[in-house]
Amino acid sequence: MAIHLSLSLPLSSKPPIPSHPSHISHANSPSQVSKNDILDIEPPLPAPSLLNPHRLLLKSFMTHSHAIVTLLLRLLNTHLGLAPHTLQDLHRLRAISGDQVRFIKAPPQPQDDRRTALGAHTDFGSVTVLFNRVGGLQVLLPEGVEPVSPTTDASSSRSEHSDDSDASNASTGSTDAEKENWAYVRPLPGHCIVNLGDALVKFTAGVLRSNIHRVVSPPGAQADVTRYSLVYFARPEDEVLLRRLEGSEVIDDAARKKGVGDEEVISAKDWVLRRALGRRGVGKWEDSKGTEEIVGMRVR
């Protein structure tokens, strides 16, 4: 399959990082493809030749993933009391944005050196749609919130790589993880995992939260399996300004209660670029921070 072949390429065979900020990566052994490229919104970017025969497959995946994002944005838009299509119109499929598909291959780590593969962070954009079959993703729960075990029905449809000794897959079992209230997110067959990102925090004055998450070595027997992830990152259109949206009593009430004052005015493209460059050490590390302070959750 093209995805597997791309992830197996040596680094010397992978294309150089293009100029759009959506292509700046901070994961281990990733390959990524821009929506602007695959949907012919902008000229094609450098890519391994083996991906070319599969552009239609990528286009189909992006289109369907974006449809999931649009559905979620429509539901959130309604619950926030915004004018119809407000959120959806900031994330149009055929508009220039930092949307991308990312493939990630994470080989098993040595048994005596199983560490965090991707540190604690929030996602740059609006909605992240994640597909994988092996655990390792953890979310930081707010204080006072305990991990909830899957229901009986969910537990019965376990991934082929699930470990029976890890009955709930909810806690890492390590002292440090428990102290910071990290919880595993179990992948379920036929399901995707959805994260909200920084843009929705800024649009809603913190009513919606971008969860802090990280990737660690998978639990139990899964730790000996190569972890593949397929991710669709949906981000606001490049020129959209990340600031509080007008026309919602829910958002206005939240802003008043939190005493939200003057906001930083920054475009979606500049926000992604600043965070990505900060993580790569090109810019200032503090510029890589997301909305952790806004949502009131901090990593110790």
Describe this structure in words.
By secondary structure, the protein is of the alpha+beta class. It has a single domain (2-147, 169-288), classed as Jelly Rolls. 25% of the residues lie in helices and 15% in strands. The chain contains eight helices and nine strands. The strands form two sheets. A five-stranded antiparallel sheet has the order 1-2-9-4-7. The termini are far apart.
Order of helices and strands: HEHHEEEEHHEEHEEHH
| DSSP strand tally | 9
- Principal-axis shape equals globular
The largest sheet is: 5 strands, antiparallel
Distance between the termini: 41 Å
- DSSP helix fraction: 25-40%
Integer average pLDDT = 78
Radius of gyration, CA atoms, in whole angstroms? 19 Å
Low-confidence stretches: 1-28, 152-175, 295-300
Number of helical regions:
8
- Strand content bin: 5-15%
CATH architecture: Sandwich
- Under CATH, the topology can be stated as Jelly Rolls
Number of domains: 1
The largest sheet has its strands arranged as: 1-2-9-4-7
